[in-house]
Amino acid sequence: MAAAAAAAVAEPKTKYDRQLRIWGDQGQAALEKASICLLNCGPTGTEALKNLVLGGIGSVTVVDGSKVEQADLGNNFLLDEGCLGQSRAKSICSFLQELNDAVKAKYVEEFPATMIDTNPSFFSQFTVVIATQLPESSLLKLDSICRSANIVLVAARSYGLTGLVRVSIKEHCVIESKPDHFLDDLRLHKPWTELKQFAKSIDICDKDAVVHKHTPYIVILVRLAEKWADAHDGQLPSTRQEKREFKDLIRAHMLNVDEDNYKEAVESSYKVSVTPGISDDIRQIIDDSSSEVNLSSSDFWVLVAALKEFIANEGNGELPLEGTIPDMTSLTEYYVSLQKIYQAKAESDCLAMEHRVKSILKRIGRDPESISRAYIKTFCKNTRKLRVCRYRSMEEEFSAPVLSEVQKYLADEDSCFAMNFYILLRAADRLAANYSRLPGIFDSTGFTSEIDEDVPRLKLAAVVVLTEMGLNGASLSEDLITEVCRFAGAEIHPVAAFIGGMASQEVIKLVTKQFVPLMGTFIFNGIDLKSQVLAL
Q1: How confident is the model over 419-472, as pLDDT tens digits?
Q2: Could you give the C-alpha distances from 16 to 12, 32, 47, 96, 463, in angstroms and in order?
Q3: How many other CB atoms are there within 10 angstroms of residue 116's CB atom?
Q4: Hey, CA dihedral for 53, 55, 56, 59, is it positive or negative?
Q5: Where would a tag sit more exposed on the chain, N or C end, judged by fewer CB atoms within 10 A?
Q6: 433 in helix, strand or coil?
Q7: Angle at Cα 532 formed by Cα 527 and Cα 533, nearest 5°?
Q8: Would you place residue 475 in the very low, low, confident or very high pLDDT band (cuts 50, 70, 90)?
Q9: Is 186:325 a contact under the CB 8 Å cutoff?
Q10: Which runs of consecutive H residues, i.e. helices, occur in 287-438?
């Protein structure tokens, strides 16, 4: 019995081993609790959902009122000839369940536009709603519904050789933003007492070759920074010339040219000159009005309020220490000692933060134990990397875009195609509303002549969109207008797979609250194989 229980616990860790290395147990737990609603299960939506199901999302609900047609077999790999004439939502759910039987899959045979109009409360049960291939009118209604219920909306659309992905939510707070490049939090510009004492306990002028070439560069920099400051009225190197002289000071202490630790010290010498205090990005979060917390404040903002108090008191103007050090040339005993010093300082800072969090929770009428120590510890380790993402509603973006940004995108050679596609996709929806079909879709023969008829119609619709955006007199590429007509609203599988993949990636970021989601509308240009995020 015990062996069976252990196997049941181990099985998910084995199944999701690779992704656990990226977002950890906490991120995986968030995925397994999440409930996803997909609107329209064409190739774009199916690709997005397939990635989430394989990743172990908790449950999915597919809303689609279509029956499987012959055309679906050509661009949706989860459907086969046996599905013809059957509910597309039911068929997709059946195949998704085969990919991962741990995921609960349900379906609703209803057209998404009808669901949005007649049953808006339906969407409040989900963590994230993925809306694929929705026209602008339905998307605007859905965005309003999701924002009022504080539900994350991810809109995705593939259209011929182009496509877009757009996230919409009032506010999304990220603790583990995991930037690609970030300076180690070593505090060499402001070492605390225990670190200074340890550095002083090591003689950096020791003539023992083994000890000298295995003294950690952190110790070398702490000692020589102090020596520099003593000779320069307490100031650390700041100008280019001073930084060059400080490097020379480090090299002067080398006994041999092959001392890697001193080479590391030279390469890391800039860390001594790090500007003390809080970065502008973090200062903006700390000074945000949401940091004035009350009973309805989220855990994130309670921790920000505690952080503000910590900086003014125990932190002496600094954030909590992260508590990790990079690999470096060192004697094992020196490196282990350094690790313990940094970990002890980080633990002390975390304990101070925990006391302040409990005090704030009690003050606002919440249970002082309602925020776990693990959450506080994660927050403390990532205070330099916090991000708050706020999104304009789609209504605001469509009716009042940031004109300076739109003009910049249209004038820039690299982004003008993306801006053109953005406008033309909106124009295509306008044309569809007037003619009950997307441009380029016809029932009769004479394809070329009718394409020629739709080009000026789409161009006129685009002019209307531009005018509504406040861009009177702006023009679009004639070639792209023709191309969008030729696309005929087709969901080409390679494009759908890419756009669906992008959508699922954003969902994972939003559910795990790790990494920073798209801050704008992502446009894929399959003609030139380029992409752009438009911040409108």
Answers
A1: 999 999 999 999 999 999 999 887 655 455 578 889 999 999 999 999 999 888
A2: 6, 11, 19, 17, 49
A3: 24
A4: negative
A5: N
A6: helix
A7: 145
A8: confident
A9: yes
A10: 299-312, 332-363, 373-381, 394-399, 403-411, 416-435
Beta-sheet pairing, 162-168 with 171-174:
unpaired
What's the rounded Cα separation, in Å, for the pair 489 and 492? 9
SS3 522: strand
Rounded CA-CA distance 127/150 in Å is 9
Identify the CA nearest to 521 among candidates 395, 419, 447: 419
Quick check: 134 and 168 in contact, CB under 8 A? no
The SS3 call for residue 35 is: strand
At 116, list the tokens: 């949005």
In 3D, which of 58, 217, 208 has the Cα closest to residue 126? Answer: 58
CA distance 76 to 494: 10
Rg (CA), the chain: 29
Structure token digits, residue 245: 């002289």
Instruction: List Cβ<8 Å contacts ≥24 apart for 282-289.
Output: 282/319, 282/383, 282/384, 282/386, 285/386, 285/388, 286/311, 288/388
185 contacts 303 by C-beta, under 8 angstroms:
no
Instruction: Say how far apart CA 507 and CA 510 lie, in whole Å.
Output: 5
Place of tokens 């939510």: 169
Question: How far is 136 from 113, CA to CA, in rounded Å?
Answer: 11
Alpha carbon distance 374, 98 (integer Å): 35
- Angle CA(343)–CA(302)–CA(510) in degrees, nearest 5? 85
- The tokens for 387 are 């991000």
The amino acid at residue 181 is H
Among residues 158, 157, 162, 160, which one has the least CA distance to residue 528? 162
Q: What is the identity of the amino acid at 266? A: V
* Contacts of 229 by beta carbon, 8 Å cutoff, 6+ apart: 235, 236
CA distance 410 to 415: 7
Contact predicate 277/317, CB 8 Å: yes
Please state, in angstroms and as integers, the Cα–Cα distance from residue 150 to each residue in 124, 128, 143, 419, following that order.
8, 10, 10, 29
Per-residue H/E/C for 159-217: ECCEEEEEEECCEEEECECCCCCCCCCCCCCCCCHHHHHHHHCCCCCCCCHHHHCCCCH
Q: Residues 45-73: pLDDT tens digits? A: 999 999 999 999 999 999 999 999 999 99
Asked whether 218 and 338 are in contact (CB, 8 A), the reply is yes
- Which of 328, 300, 305, 117 is CA-nearest to residue 215? 328
Choice between 22 and 379, residue whose per-residue pLDDT is larger: 379
